[in-house]
C-alpha cells in the first residue's frame, strides 16, 4: 500500500464469479479463493494464470473462509457447517451437514483461544437472531438465541475473546451498541443442543453526543475500552455527514471524529493497529494507537490535550487543501497517524521560544512556517539529527514537506543541496513527500530527479512519464552544465571532446550484416549506412544517465502506457534509438550485462522497448526518420533469434561434452577431437 503498486493480479474466466473474499494462508503464503460458490482455488505469488492453479470442487456452497495466523484457514459453509482447510482438502467431496435450517448467515468471525480455532457466526430467521459458537477441531457446537429488542434490530456485529469469554458487540438500528457475553464451555466433544439458550444483552454505548446522533454502518473493537464506528452523523438542522468516530466505552464519551466528505462504502476494517476504509475512490490506511483509558483522558483534561501529536501526522490523501485544516482534534490518548502523505495544518504562528524537545513535530513545523531561511534549515537539521525513533521516517517526510511548501510560497527559495542530502542519506519514499518531485520538475533539478528515481520505490507512473519527457526535452548543452551522476554510463560510453562516442568495433552475438541483407529490402541513404544506429550513442552521457534512472524505476504497464502515448513522436524515436543502442551493447557481452553501477539490465531494456513500440508503433511506421531505426532493430532481433536457435540445436551435444569432462580425470596432457554430428 505504501508503494502504491499492484504486486499481483489474477482473474477468473468469463462467466465465473468470486463468491467470497480471498484470504491468505499465513502458514503456506498461499491465496485461497472460492468462485461459483463451490470451486476452491489455491495459488501463490509466482502463479500467473489462475485457471492453472490448484482446483477443488466442494459438495456444498461456501459462505466465507477465515484465515488465522496460527490456526490455519477455516471454511464456513452456507449451511452452518465448519471445516478446517486441511480436513476439507483430504476429501473435497465429503458430505457437508446442514447445521442451520431456514436461517441466513449475517456475520462470522474466527478467533484463536489457546491452540484451538473458534468460529462464531450469527444468523437470522423470521426476525429472530441466533449465535453459533463452533470449535471445529473438537466438533463442538453451541447455539444461542439473541434476546429480542423492541422496534430495533441488529445491523452489524463484531466480537473478541478474553478470559474464556466471547464478547459480542451488536450495533442496533436504534443508534446503540449492545454487549453480549458468552462463556466458552470447556467441553471436548458435544453435538448441538436441542434447546438453545437465550442470551441477554446490556447497553454498552449510545451513539449520540450534543444532540447529534451517529447512524452507524460498521464497527470494530480497538481494545477493551475503545471501539471505532463508521456512519452518518446527523445533527438537528444540518445535513448528515459521514464520519469515522472513536468512542470510549468505559466512560461513555466520544473521543475523536473525522468527517469523510467524499463518502465511504460503509465498511470499516481493522488489522494490526491500522484502519482500512474506502474514502471516495481511494483505499485509506490510518495507523492508530490506544493508550490506557483514564478519566482525565476521557474528558480532555490531559496536559497535552491542546497540542495533540496526531495533528503533525494526520492527513487524508483524498481531501482538498482547504479541508486539511480539519484534523483529528483528539482530546485524549487515542492517537491516529495517517500512513500516507504528511501535510501541515494551515495555522499561522511565530517561532516559539519553547525548546523544540517539548513540542510535537507538527507544532514545531507550524512554528517554523514563517521563520527565516537560516532558522528554518538550522532547526530542521537539528530535528533530523535526533536519535532514531519509530516515527523518524515520518518526521523526515514532514521536514521535506515543510521545505517544499516554502518553495511553493516563495518561488525564489529552493534549498537544492539540502534536499539532495536528505534524499541521499534517508530512507524515504514518494508517499512520504509527494510534492518533492513536482517541485524538482518545476525547478528543472535533474540531479534530484535522478536520485529520487533511483531510490523511491513508489513513484506514480504519471511522475515517471513527466521525468522522462523532461529528460528528453532538455538540450545536451544545458545538461553538460549541471551535475549528474554518471556512474551508470561511464563504463560503456566513450566520449571525445566533441561529445561524440568513439566508434568501436562491435561484435554482436550471432549478428552479421551480410547474413541479413535480405531481411529488409528498404533502401537506405548512403550516409546513413556508414554508421548504424546501434553503433553510436544517440545521446550524451548526462542524458544517458538520466534515462538509465527512468529504466530503473518501478512501474505498472497498465498505468504507464496511457501516459507514454502522449510522448512526442521525435522524443519517442530518440528514446527508442537509445534503447536500441543499449540492446546492442548488452548483446556484445556473453552475460548480456552492462558494466558499471546501476546499469540497466537486458530485461529492463527489452520491457521499455516493447512499451515504447506498443505506445507509438503506428506513428513510427508512418515517420520516414523512424524507418531505418525499425529496420535495423528488426534485423538485429532476427539475427539474435537465429543465433539462439542455432545454439539450441547443439545444446544436447554441449551438455554431453560437459558430462564427459566430469567423468574423465585428465591426469596427463592430451588432445582429443570430438565430432559433433
From TrEMBL:
<keyword id="KW-0539">Nucleus</keyword>
<dbReference type="Pfam" id="PF20998">
    <property type="entry name" value="Nol11_C"/>
</dbReference>
<feature type="domain" description="Nucleolar protein 11 N-terminal">
    <location>
        <begin position="1"/>
        <end position="289"/>
    </location>
</feature>
<keyword id="KW-0010">Activator</keyword>
<dbReference type="InterPro" id="IPR048897">
    <property type="entry name" value="Nol11_C"/>
</dbReference>
<dbReference type="Pfam" id="PF08168">
    <property type="entry name" value="NOL11_N"/>
</dbReference>
<keyword id="KW-0805">Transcription regulation</keyword>
<dbReference type="InterPro" id="IPR012584">
    <property type="entry name" value="NOL11_N"/>
</dbReference>
<feature type="domain" description="Nucleolar protein 11 C-terminal">
    <location>
        <begin position="363"/>
        <end position="675"/>
    </location>
</feature>
<keyword id="KW-0804">Transcription</keyword>
<protein>
    <submittedName>
        <fullName>NOL11 protein</fullName>
    </submittedName>
</protein>
<keyword id="KW-0698">rRNA processing</keyword>
<dbReference type="InterPro" id="IPR042859">
    <property type="entry name" value="NOL11"/>
</dbReference>
<dbReference type="GO" id="GO:0003723">
    <property type="term" value="F:RNA binding"/>
</dbReference>
<dbReference type="GO" id="GO:0030490">
    <property type="term" value="P:maturation of SSU-rRNA"/>
</dbReference>
<dbReference type="GO" id="GO:0005730">
    <property type="term" value="C:nucleolus"/>
</dbReference>
Amino acid at each position: 500500500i505504501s508503494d502504491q503498486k499492484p504486486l499481483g493480479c489474477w482473474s477468473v474466466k468469463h462467466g465465473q464469479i468470486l463468491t467470497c473474499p480471498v484470504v491468505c494462508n499465513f502458514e503456506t503464503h498461499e491465496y485461497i479463493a472460492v468462485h461459483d460458490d463451490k470451486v476452491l482455488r489455491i495459488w501463490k505469488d509466482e502463479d500467473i494464470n489462475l485457471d492453472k492453479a490448484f482446483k477443488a470442487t466442494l459438495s456444498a456452497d461456501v459462505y466465507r473462509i477465515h484465515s488465522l495466523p496460527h490456526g490455519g484457514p477455516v471454511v464456513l459453509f452456507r449451511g452452518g457447517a465448519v471445516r478446517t482447510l486441511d480436513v476439507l482438502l483430504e476429501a473435497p467431496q465429503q458430505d457437508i451437514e446442514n447445521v442451520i435450517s431456514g436461517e441466513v448467515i449475517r456475520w462470522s468471525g474466527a478467533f484463536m483461544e489457546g491452540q484451538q480455532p473458534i468460529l462464531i457466526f450469527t444468523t437470522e430467521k423470521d426476525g429472530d437472531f441466533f449465535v453459533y459458537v463452533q470449535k471445529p477441531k473438537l466438533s463442538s457446537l453451541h447455539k444461542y438465541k439473541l434476546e429480542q429488542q423492541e422496534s430495533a434490530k441488529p445491523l452489524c456485529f463484531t466480537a473478541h475473546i478474553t478470559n474464556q469469554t466471547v464478547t459480542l458487540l451488536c450495533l442496533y438500528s436504534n443508534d446503540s451498541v449492545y454487549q453480549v457475553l458468552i462463556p466458552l464451555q470447556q467441553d471436548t466433544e458435544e453435538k448441538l443442543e436441542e434447546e438453545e439458550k437465550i442470551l441477554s444483552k446490556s447497553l454498552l454505548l449510545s451513539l449520540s453526543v450534543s444532540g447529534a446522533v451517529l447512524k452507524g454502518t460498521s464497527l470494530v473493537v480497538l481494545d477493551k475500552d475503545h471501539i471505532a464506528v463508521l456512519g452518518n452523523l446527523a445533527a438537528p438542522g444540518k445535513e448528515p455527514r459521514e464520519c469515522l468516530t472513536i468512542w470510549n466505552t468505559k466512560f461513555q464519551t466520544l473521543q475523536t471524529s473525522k468527517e469523510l466528505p467524499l463518502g465511504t462504502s460503509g465498511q470499516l476494517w481493522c488489522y494490526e493497529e491500522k484502519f482500512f476504509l474506502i474514502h471516495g475512490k481511494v483505499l485509506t490506511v490510518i495507523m492508530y494507537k490506544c493508550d490506557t483509558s483514564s478519566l482525565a483522558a476521557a474528558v480532555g483534561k490531559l496536559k497535552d490535550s491542546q497540542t495533540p501529536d496526531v495533528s503533525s501526522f494526520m492527513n487524508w490523501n483524498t481531501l482538498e487543501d482547504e479541508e486539511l485544516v480539519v484534523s483529528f482534534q483528539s482530546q485524549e490518548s487515542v492517537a491516529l497517524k495517517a500512513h500516507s502523505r504528511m501535510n501541515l495544518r494551515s495555522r499561522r504562528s511565530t517561532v516559539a521560544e519553547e525548546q523544540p524537545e517539548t513540542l510535537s513535530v507538527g507544532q514545531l513545523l507550524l512554528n517554523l512556517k514563517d521563520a527565516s531561511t537560516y532558522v528554518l534549515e538550522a532547526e530542521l537539521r537539528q530535528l533530523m539529527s535526533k536519535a532514531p525513533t519509530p516515527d523518524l521516517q515520518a518526521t523526515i517526510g514532514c521536514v521535506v514537506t515543510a521545505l517544499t511548501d516554502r518553495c511553493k510560497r516563495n518561488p525564489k527559495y529552493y534549498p537544492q543541496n539540502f534536499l539532495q542530502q536528505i534524499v541521499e542519506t534517508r530512507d524515504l519514499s514518494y508517499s512520504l513527500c509527494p510534492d518533492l518531485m513536482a517541485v524538482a520538475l518545476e525547478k528543472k533539478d535533474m540531479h534530484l530527479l535522478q536520485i529520487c528515481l533511483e531510490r523511491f520505490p513508489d513513484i506514480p507512473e504519471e511522475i515517471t512519464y513527466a521525468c522522462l519527457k523532461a529528460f528528453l526535452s532538455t538540450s545536451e548543452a544545458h545538461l553538460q552544465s549541471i551535475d549528474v551522476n554518471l556512474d551508470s554510463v561511464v563504463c560503456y560510453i566513450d566520449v571525445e571532446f566533441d561529445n561524440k562516442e568513439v566508434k568501436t568495433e562491435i561484435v554482436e552475438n550471432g549478428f552479421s550484416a551480410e547474413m541479413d541483407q535480405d531481411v529488409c529490402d528498404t533502401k537506405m541513404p548512403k550516409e546513413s549506412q556508414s554508421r548504424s544506429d546501434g553503433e553510436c550513442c544517440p545521446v550524451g552521457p548526462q542524458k544517458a544517465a538520466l534515462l538509465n534512472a527512468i529504466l530503473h524505476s518501478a512501474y505498472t504497464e497498465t498505468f504507464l502506457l496511457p501516459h507514454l502515448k502522449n510522448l512526442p513522436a521525435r522524443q519517442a524515436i530518440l528514446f527508442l534509438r537509445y534503447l536500441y543502442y543499449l540492446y546492442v551493447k548488452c548483446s556484445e557481452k556473453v552475460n548480456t550485462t552492462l558494466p558499471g553501477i546501476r546499469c540497466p539490465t537486458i530485461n529492463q531494456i527489452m520491457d521499455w522497448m516493447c512499451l515504447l513500440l506498443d505506445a507509438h508503433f503506428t506513428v513510427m511506421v508512418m515517420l520516414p526518420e523512424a524507418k531505418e531505426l525499425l529496420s535495423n532493430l528488426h534485423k538485429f532481433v532476427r539475427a539474435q533469434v537465429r543465433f539462439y536457435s542455432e545454439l539450441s540445436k547443439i545444446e544436447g551435444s554441449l551438455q554431453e561434452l560437459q558430462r564427459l569432462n566430469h567423468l574423465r580425470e585428465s591426469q596427463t596432457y592430451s588432445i582429443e577431437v570430438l565430432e559433433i554430428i
